[in-house]
Amino acid sequence: MDAPTERHCYKPTLRWNPKVEDYFIKAYGSDHFACISEALTFPSCYSCIRVNTLKSTSDAIIEKLSAILQESGQHYVIDNMNQSDANGEYIIDCEHKDHVKESNVPLNSYDSDKAALVLSESAQTGQITKCQLPGLDYVVFVKGSGPHTINYGCAHDKLPKEVIVSRKCAEAVLRGAQVYVPGVLACSAHVEKGDTVAVSVAVEQPVQDGGWGIGMTRGTVLQGLQTDPYFFERNGLYIGQGTTMMSRAQMFRVPKGIAVDLHDRVFKLPSFHDVLEGEIFLQNLPSIITAHALDPQPGERILDMCAAPGGKTTAIAILMKDKGEVVAVDRSHNKVLDIQKLAAEMGLNCIRTYKLDALKAVLQRSESSDVCISPSVAQVELDIDCTTRTNCSNEKATETTCAGKVDMQQSIWRPRNGPGRNNCMGGRVEKSDGFSPNSFDRVLLDAPCSALGLRPRLFTGEETIESLRNHAKYQRRMFDQAVQLVRPGGVIVYSTCTINPGENEALVRYVLDTYKFLTLALQHPRIGGPGLVGSCELPDGCIEEWLRSGEEELVQRFDPSSPLDTIGFFVAKFNVGSKDA
Ligand SMILES: C[S@@+](CC[C@H](N)C(=O)[O-])C[C@H]1O[C@@H](n2cnc3c(N)ncnc32)[C@H](O)[C@@H]1O
């Protein structure tokens, strides 16, 4: 067999909107941005698992996972998970991270040395390791490997049979998933069950109207010729080789199932789909650290403003030992059901879920009375809001003012057999009209964002300067609601999974300039890097202000090209002073 070709390899290049690319180059410098852009196309080389400490322990989970991995015959590199380099910096051993050293991204001076030390200790235990950072021993890492070079068996006159998958499918496959039927876009002719196929991905290309698109009909027959759709565009976009689980005809006839068993992968990452349900949750390290930074205490009342699917909600509830109240809201009905399902799986009772637009999270009061009235006075919604109050262990005085009217409504609407798990009636999604001002001890705003930190990403061209600005406006309006809902003396944590400074440092600037009673707070643990200081001129001439000197060490910016090898993420924590000042 011939050696792998330039075509049959994994060397993707991210396509950015040119103005967005210019903006990021101004923000990061061209070398650093090139590293970030490259890192985004790779998955992290380890899986991060949060253990539900109310049901199990890290040691028990490590034992169970080892047994599961051994049984499933999944092949992993069983060498050092993490190691410190000569400077004592925290390096996760990963073959594709060569560019990390070139990028010279500084690790922050806070906990990075400690992280290096404790994580290098954990390296000695092998493939599955417990996080040694103080307070984070409920986090377990499982190492993967890659990128691997795959020999697709190309000879001069013979090309492999092929399957092309959608970008979303490929991004999931790079994280360890299988190739499922709905993700398959095209396949070679005469493919039968059991054939060996090379799998590549079709990434959006510029189209005539100036946008981006996939000009391929699902079910396209590939001839192995240069006239095949996306032939040249797929150079360097091969993600693995596998065995078909069904014929070509079936792939485009059946609605579901595994289409290709991808046994030779560019990245080998363990798949924990449906494994140890309720005992563990697969979660990015920065997300775990965000819940930790909020520092929720048992008995407190916490608001998670954009909560679905509930990763951080459940992390918060566990940190509170399931004591107190975590109010988890999301604007999507189905996503609220996801939070309920996760809370039930994890056996958490302190979580109450609501469908609510976070932009309208502050309850409106009627001018003529002290009674809380929603703009759309829906009876069932009033009842629901008050069900929470009657069950709440740490009600706030402001909320008891509704009691008279509430009792009446409850007698009409309360279901006979009472509320079920998490006070959700039989999986129903309850609507909320909002919450009283100053009624939460802590608020988490894990804002919807451009998600330009998620990994792996094979396309980013859809974001424009305008769309980035719209995300930022939306986040500010949400933050305005958070400020009203948190009590004086409370805490707000803001986070995003984007590398866009406009949604991160610029939000912090807006907050500190607008609300003088908010101050940036120290976060524990702090292993992310410093924030960006200064300002940047946008293409339309507007100046975007970021952090001021001294503020940068108070936020955590997780750089995807840094040795921590996480997704791109940002966390800011604010202490809330007296609102009268
Ligand atoms: C970044 S995700 C949250 C992830 C979640 N915190 C977790 O850790 O599992 C953002 C969420 O915000 C929700 N969202 C977007 N706009 C919203 C709005 N106006 N009100 C409430 N939720 C909203 C989306 O439905 C999405 O589930």
TrEMBL record:
- Tell whether Mitochondrion is among the UniProt keywords: no
| Active-site residue list | C497
Keyword Methyltransferase present in the record's keywords: the answer is yes
What InterPro entries does the database record attribute to this sequence?
Answer: MeTrfase_RsmB-F_NOP2_cat, MeTrfase_RsmB-F_NOP2_dom, PUA, PUA-like_sf, PUA_sf, RCMT, RsmB/NOL1/NOP2-like_CS, SAM-dependent_MTases_sf
Q: Which residues of this UniProt protein bind S-adenosyl-L-methionine? A: C306, A307, A308, P309, G310, G311, K312, D330, D357, D446
Q: Which Pfam families match?
A: Methyltr_RsmB-F (PF01189), PUA (PF01472)
Q: Where are the transmembrane segments?
A: none
| Gene3D superfamilies linked | PUA domain, Vaccinia Virus protein VP39
List the GO molecular function terms: RNA binding; RNA methyltransferase activity
SUPFAM superfamilies xref list: PUA domain-like (SSF88697), S-adenosyl-L-methionine-dependent methyltransferases (SSF53335)
Q: Which GO terms describe its biological process?
A: RNA methylation
Query: Which domain of life does this protein belong to?
Result: Eukaryota
Q: Which UniProt keywords apply?
A: Methyltransferase, RNA-binding, S-adenosyl-L-methionine, Transferase
Family assignment from sequence similarity = Belongs to the class I-like SAM-binding methyltransferase superfamily. RsmB/NOP family.
- Descriptive protein name: Methyltransferase
Organism of origin is Actinidia chinensis var. chinensis
